[in-house]
Amino acid sequence: MTHKRITLRNVRPWGADAADITVSDGIITEVAPAGGASEPGDLDGAGLLAVPGFINTHAHIDKSWWGKPWVPYTYSENPTVEGWIANERAERGNYDIPNTASATAVLREFLRHGTTATRTHIDVDLGIGLKGLESVQAAVAELDGAIHVETVAFPQDGVLRRPGVMRLLEEAAQAGVDSIGGLDPGTIDGDVGGQLEGLFQIAVDHGVGLDLHLHDFGSLGAYEYRQVIRRTLDAGLQGKVNISHGFAMGALQPEVRDEIIEGLAEAGISWTTVAMNGTAPLPWQQMRDRGVPLGLGTDGIRDLWSPFGDGDLLRVAFAFARLHGFRHDDKLVTAVEHATKHGAPFVGRELHDLVPGAPADVVLLDAENVPDALVRCPQRRLVLSAGRVVARDGEVLV
Ligand SMILES: [Zn+2]
User: Fold this and answer.
1) Ligand 1 centroid, distance to 79 Cα (angstroms)
2) pLDDT per position as a tens digit, 46-88
3) Phi, psi of 52 (to 5 degrees)
4) Domain boundary among 323, 347, 371
5) What is the DSSP letter of 92?
């Protein structure tokens, strides 16, 4: 965080008329029409488009081999979640996964593309214990506050079927993670109630959130949503529970979908999607109308699950727009809003926008307007994180 006052001059917030954005102690204090008198240390925005820093609400920065020689994907052409999990556990040691250097490299890619805050899941299992968490904490420290990181201790290999993992999750909660993860309690642990009961108990006992990967489809998926909703209400955890992926949602029968969305709204449960190619579009408008927070994420990038992903959340917003058939300007802007300001609650922020009171996380792009930026995904010309210049012309400066 910078402790001086600076002004970012001549930028177009969300494509509006040129403005000067003044920052003090890392917070935006004023957005005024451009043309104020320049002072030493001011930054010239050159009339570029300005949007808030991107918020990646679903990442796995501990899984990546970024920064290492290319790792060819050799696992099955017809993979299953269960098979990917086993493959990763069998192969990760060959690539020193997890490690601090790769986690740092991933966070630097996020910064290069204008992501200034992220929530990341971190594998916790019997093989590596809390090593992934330690790697991520070291990476965050290395970048000295340039990117805000929220952590989720994630039992990728299952919970109940691996005795000892529940204890590790408790240790992670004591070690300061923001949330505890979970994974397909029906198919992975074969005990929806059992896994959820244990996870919710840790959340209540340690005051952490829950962020649950739910890949299951159809009626099992709907049953798991209902269970999460009921337990969130029973535990009084409104506003602290998130469902990740939730692939079943887009294909539910309308009456079931309506009931689930009402339940999510009542229980204050949020939702994150990575807009995966080939998945059913989400009823995003209905979710938004009912106040269900919806965040976008990259998922894992360049790891043993897939070689794809470059950490650019604007490309995820592009994928979200394509998946949902967006063409009109207002919808294209909506996709960018979900990649920026609507991500605020996923990283513990009440406000994340180009307005006074918000963190001074600002991204400049050479684009005519927000829809133009979305469809072209041009280079990020300048990235400010808490008022500090962290990337310029595609070069990370931290
Ligand atoms: Zn994930």
Assistant:
1) 16
2) 999 999 999 999 999 999 999 999 999 999 888 999 999 999 9
3) -65, 160
4) 347
5) G
